[in-house]
Structure formats: C-alpha cells, structure tokens
Write a structure and sequence with these properties.
The protein is α/β, with parallel strands linked by helices and 530 residues long. It contains 16 helices and 17 strands. The N terminus and C terminus are likely disordered.
C-alpha cells in the first residue's frame, strides 16, 4: 500500500545548503550595490544642519489685570508647536526673515524651493523640531534646518526660530488685545449716563469708575509692548562644520547589510516556494524505481572517516542493502560474485545527482564498503572534478602507507579499505571515452566498479560519461526541487543513459515508523518497520 506523505521536520542543514549555494551571487550583488551606493553618495552635494534653541516657560504672569481679562496664553503641547512651526503663516514669516538676512545664492534658492515644496506636500524635512517637554509643558525646543551651505543652514534655523517666537508672541498678544478691546468698550460706556437699580449713577462715582478703567487700559498698553508669550530664545544657531549628508561609507555599509539580508531571505523564500521532493512517490512519478530511502546522517568535513560509522546505523545500513540489491537486479544480476568468473564483464555503475551536496559521494563510499564486506572486490573511481572526496571518505591509513601508482591521467590507490581500491582522476576535466577505456581496462580485476561523477546539471560531460557506464544511480535530496529532477531525468533520457533508479537521501521518515519499498526483484511492495 502507498502511505500518505508526511510533513518533514525543519531541516537546518537544508537551509544551510541553500544559503551556501546562493551565498556567492548574493555577496557579489551586495558588494555591487554597496559600491554603487558609495559612488552615488560621493556625487551628491553636501547637506549641513544647524539648530537654534528655545525655552518653554510657565504661563502664569502674576498680573491681576491680565488674569481678570483672560489675556494669558496657555502653554501648548509639543505637537501643537510643531504644527505651528510648519503652518503657512510661520513659514511665510521664516522665509521673509531668511530672504532679509542671507544674500541670494544657489543654496538659498534651493532651500526656499525645498521649503515651498514640503509645505505643499506636507512632507517636512528641511525644517525640523525636537522637543524635551515635561508634564507641565516646560522644557526646550530645538529648531533645526538643512541647507547646502553652513551659512544658509544657520540663517534658516535662526529665521524660523524667530518666526516661531513671533507667532507665540502674537498668540499672547491676541489675549491682551481682547482685554484692551474690553476695557475700551467699558470706557466708552462710562462716557454716557449710567444707572444702578433704576437710579442714575452719580457724577463722582461715574468719574471714579472711568478713572479705574483708564488706569487698567494704560497698564494693558504697557503689556502690549513687552509681551513675549511662553517661548523664549536660549541660543541662536551655530555655524556647522561637517555635513550631515551624504555619508558614503555609512550608506555603503547599510546598503551591503540590507542587500545581504534580503538576498538571503529571498533565497530561502524562493527555495521554500518551489515544489520539493519530499516523498518517494514524487520520484516514482518519473517512471523509475526508488531503490532506497536513506535517513539523514551527520558526516562532518572534519571527520571524513565517518563513512565507516554510517554502516553501524541500523536504518542506514538496512536501506543501503536495498540499494545494493536493487542496483544489481536492475543490472540483471542477483549477485555479482555469482555472476561468473572474474573474466566476465564487470559492471560499471556511475552515481550522480542534479546538484552538489546531495550525498552521492557518501553513498558511493558507503555502497563500496558494504559490498566489500560481502566479499566483493570493488574499485571506486573518483571522477568528481568539483570535489574529490573519496580519498577522505575511504582512506583509513596515512597516505605514505598506501601503495599507489599512476595510470595515464589517473592514480590508483591500493587497498584503501579491505577489498577496495581507489582510482582518482588527476586531470581537471572529464574526457568520457578516454576515462571509460582506462576504467574498463582495470575492471577485469574487480567484481564491481562504482564511479563518483560530478552533478549532471553542473558539468556537461557528466551525461555522456554516464552513458558509457553500464548503469547510473541518481541520488536526490529531499529538498531538491521537482523542476531540477525533471531536468535531470530529461537530460539522462535524451542521452540514452541506462538509469537504474533513484536513491532518496535525507528522508526523515526512515526509522520513525513504516515506509514503503518496492522490490526490484519481485515488483511487490514490502512494508518495513524502521
């Protein structure tokens, strides 16, 4: 029976392989973007920032006349002050003061144009406000300005600070003007005939009341000349020395970091969105048998002799036996040792994959070891010009203790393991016909030849080389995309390669319950408990 596919656990190793594969183009792209950001920043004109400071003071004046006539101006929150700074009235006043204090120049024209554009779009950058106000609305305001020259930046900050002070003074003066209007109205009324309780007010009383109003009016007139609102100047802007922008090095570093982060994120996202070979049924849909389901194993580069330890794993060894039996049956043999004398044609089996790091080299070494333990004499050929790993995986003795000799463009390492010899390719490229002749000439001394080849989708000569072999095992990682497997099968079919079947690597359900195996000998499905 066919079991339903299960969701695979989080495979950190798969993520690391994806990132490692995409790291070089992502790094190159990030470096290119960082260089462009650096050059672009260097080409931009400098921008200077100047800052003027104001103080927010208590609102109580302590004057009874002002308090009684409601002329005191209350303190305002920082948000209201910020909105006032960018209001059309304050902006016009600030622009007018800037024109009056700074001679015409390109920097001044650009600053005025920026202020006008920001006022229309309400996207303010040239004029800024920073506030440090306590709960009693007492503290400081800093009015900052950006401009193309230090002089224009300082003048702009001072001009808008003065404009804000004038707005605050006008706000306070508005209360005094209302008090003055009220007192003038009272004075005019006292100029006529008044009555109290239906009886006319005496001339003496009327004159006394008029005198008090006039006295209050005089006090209000004095306050009109000295009113200052709740804001007071602390310090005018100083002339900036260094520009705040552009900063080429900072921009380049930020661009590099952002490009690296988003590049890695997109690589992971692209990998996750693609359909992956997570189940053997997906591989069977290509019309080839799945000869084994190998579980994930830990085989570190700093511990290359780990191939020997893999055979101690029950589930791994068990599945490796299925691969061995399936491989031989697909070649038409039940047992190589029983196929005939050593003079009979020795099967040459290539192992390959779509990409690197799918486990074909580990499978080659492990398959050679398990066949050697069954008494077969095996020749392992390391033809992977990308990374020759068989010597590291199989050699258990110091290199000086191993007999070796050169055969053309190949080097033979004798007895790297009991019943196992190793043939390594010395050239940096594959010559299919030449290599096949060398391997075939040596194969008469062995029961089985296993050839570790480069990934088929990476090296063009791998396919023609595999066609010269008696069979090809395709190793597929569970995180390989279905699209790449399709390309792999199409390429081997187009070249007429005798593909024996798939080996699904890093399949996590092995050993965690029941899995399905279709015997290549009987064609029947066998359910095995891992």
């Amino acid at each position: 029976m066919t079991l339903p596919s299960r969701v695979q656990d989080l495979d950190v190793g798969a993520y690391l392989r994806v990132l490692r594969g995409a790291m070089v183009p992502i790094l190159l792209g990030a470096l290119a973007l960082a260089a462009l950001a650096f050059v672009y920043s260097r080409s931009r004109p400098p921008v200077y920032r100047a800052t003027a400071s104001l103080a927010a003071l208590p609102t109580s004046s302590g004057n009874s006349v002002i308090n009684n006539t409601l002329v005191s101006a209350p303190a305002l929150p920082a948000g209201v002050v910020g909105r006032a700074l960018r209001s059309p009235d304050v902006t016009r006043d600030g622009v007018k003061r800037l024109r009056a204090t700074v001679p015409d120049s390109a920097a001044r024209r650009q600053t005025l144009a920026n202020i006008a554009a920001e006022l229309r779009s309400e996207n303010y950058r040239t004029i800024g406000l920073a506030a440090e106000i306590d709960q009693n609305l007492i503290g400081t305001y800093e009015i900052s300005a950006l401009a193309g020259t230090p002089e224009v930046a300082r003048a702009t900050a001072d001009a808008f600070a003065a404009a804000l002070l004038q707005w605050d003074r006008a706000r306070a003066l508005d209360g005094i003007n209302r008090a003055r209007t009220n007192l003038i109205t009272q004075r005019d009324l006292l100029g006529g005939q008044l009555s109290a309780g239906g009886q006319a007010v005496g001339e003496r009383t009327l004159e006394q009341m008029r005198s008090e109003v006039v006295q209050q009016l005089q006090q209000v007139e004095v306050l009109r000349q000295t009113v200052s609102g709740t804001l007071s100047p602390i310090a005018s802007a100083t002339l900036p020395v260094d520009p705040v922008a552009p900063k080429p090095l900072r921009n380049a570093i930020l661009t590099f970091g952002a490009a690296l982060f988003f590049g890695l994120l997109l690589a992971l996202l692209r990998d996750r969105l693609g359909k992956r070979v997570q189940d053997p049924d997906i591989l069977r849909s290509f019309g080839l048998p799945v000869l084994g389901l190998l579980p994930p194993v830990t085989l570190r580069r700093h511990n290359p002799r780990g191939a020997l330890a893999l055979l101690a794993s029950g589930s791994f060894r068990e599945q490796l036996e299925f691969v061995r039996v399936g491989m031989l049956s697909r070649l038409g043999l039940t047992d190589v040792a029983a196929a005939g004398p050593r003079s009979a044609k020795t099967p040459l089996v290539a192992l390959s994959s779509a990409n690197m790091d799918e486990g074909k080299s580990t499978l080659t070494a492990s398959l050679a070891l398990i066949c050697a333990q069954r008494g077969l004499k095996v020749l392992v050929v390391d033809a992977d010009i990308y990374r020759q790993r068989q010597k590291d995986l199989l050699l258990s003795r110091p290199e000086k203790a191993v007999t070796r000799h050169q055969v053309g463009d190949h080097e033979v390492w004798m007895q790297v393991q009991p019943n196992i010899d190793l043939l390594t390719l010395l050239d940096s490229r594959i010559e299919p016909a030449k290599s096949q002749r060398t391997i075939r000439a040596m194969s008469n001394h062995y029961d089985l030849v296993l050839v570790d080849t480069p990934p088929i989708l990476k090296i063009a000569d791998t396919g023609p080389f595999a066609r010269l072999m008696d069979g090809l095992l395709l190793v597929v990682d569970v995180n390989t995309s279905v699209e790449q497997v399709e390309r792999l099968v199409d390429e081997t079919t187009r070249l007429g390669v005798n593909t024996l079947g798939f080996v699904l690597n890093r399949y996590r359900d092995v050993g965690n319950g029941y899995y399905e195996y279709r015997s290549t000998l009987t064609g029947q499905e066998v359910k095995i408990h891992g």
